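As practice, study what follows.
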Amino acid sequence: MDCEDMQMIISEEPNLSERKEGGKRGRKPGRKASNEKIDIRAKLERSRQSARECRARKKLRYQYLEELVADREKAVLALRAELERYRLWSSELSEGRIPNGFQQLLEETGFVKQEIVV
C-alpha cells in the first residue's frame, strides 16, 4: 500500500469524536417511565408468586426423592434377607442336608422337573 491508499482509508473511517448524544445504548440514569412506577407492585407480586411456585416444586422434588430412597432401602433389605437365606442353605448343603424351601426353588427355576403322579 502506498501513502495515498492509506490516506483514503483514514479519511473513510468515521470520526469517533463526532458521536450523537442519543447514540448511547442502555438505560439512562434518573429516567423512569411512569408505567414503571405503576408496574412495581405487579412485579413484586409476580416475584412472590414465582417464589411460592419454586418452593412448591422444591417440596415435591424432595418428596419424590424421599420415596425413591425409601423404595431402594426396602429393596436392599429384601436382598440382604435373600442373601442370608442363601448363606444358610449353602452351609446346610455343605453339611449334606437339604434345607427347607430349597426343593421348591429348584422346581421354580426349572432345574428339577416336577414328577407327575397319576
Observations:
- The chain has a mean pLDDT of 80.
- The chain has three helices and no strands.
- Helices lie at 3-12, 34-94, 102-109.
- Residues 33-98 form one domain.
